[in-house]
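2 proteins. here.
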Amino acid sequence: MVALALLSRILAASIGCYGLASLWSIALALAWPGPRADGVMLGLVSAFAIGTLAVLWVFAASTAWRAWAGLLLPAAILAGIVFWPGLP
């Protein structure tokens, strides 16, 4: 059982953090009020920090369920921003 929890955290740290950082980068580029190139650059650079913080969160969470929830909730919010019909 412990091995499955560890495997789940490893998958969350690799796949989940990549998805969260990608959604962050896209959402920031779309929502940035200034020039599009500035939003894209800021999104890409800050995605590294978001990914690092997400990996730290995954292994600091008390359970694997909480680690996944801590990734999926912000990812759902960011996906809502990315797929919002009013944004270009």
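next one coming up
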Amino acid sequence: MATETLTLGKALNTGLRRALENDQKVVIMGEDVGKLGGVFRITDGLQKDFGDQRVIDTPLAESGIIGTAVGLAIRGFRPVCEIQFDGFVYPAYDQIVSQVAKMHYRSQGKVRIPMVIRIPYGGGIGAVEHHSESPEAYFAHTAGLKVVTCANPQDAYVMIQQAIASDDPIVFLEPKRRYWEKGQVDLDAPLTDAYPLHNARVARPGTDATVLAYGPMVRTALDAATAAAEDGRELEVIDLRTLSPLDLTAAYESVKRTGRCVVVHEAPGNLGLGSEIAARITEECFYSLESPVLRVTGFDIPYPAARVEEEYLPDLDRVLDAVDRTFGW
């Protein structure tokens, strides 16, 4: 078994390489993904090894990238589009919602759109305006799209390959602030034996309260659980992994045991994923709850300037405060 310590970014790079090796119909396209290897170097070395017909530098036109990928997907290719930064996806939003998400349905199943739209998302890197968005709710709300997000190198390596192999259009959200965090990655495990793409997973077992998180906030939730353990409180952390379809089976089982639930995400709270999750938890686990489901989110403002972003982002203290409040009812 070949297990290596990789950063999350390198795990994505390795997963993309495996996908290119395994299927000649896989193509990668985006701004600066070729010779430069992407602004975060996620596609580093791929154009050199697979050529500029399979790793394609595109013009700076997100709508053009997605439109071209739709045509390729219809013709049997499996395009992987990189949106350079989260805030750049909006010029392509019309095509993603009006074409990518609906073509399979409109054609009564005759047309499949097997494409992946990779989006580095979230804050925490000191970036300028339009480079630290959390647009997941837009896509999770759109019927016909699947939305997933990785939180650690092992999932990054496996999930990107699973997404590319899927016949459905998938928005693949990558937590950019976690690109440099390291973890063990099993490079030899067969993809057929991997954890299912659209299933949540318990990241840390616990008995006293349930913390639900995804993407960049999983690490924050785990850090909060470590801190809580020092005070004798065991938090169960669940990595949702899939935002559409939303898998809450593990969450329901957990909350029915713990009686308390806190949902954490970077995006603003108003109409965010946390609202839907809290509603579903309340419906399913009402008689097990010892307190209301609480949310820890970004504030309902445009993403702030980098010098004050740490005041905006949910952190360990805000998560622990919410947990404390669940014990106050």
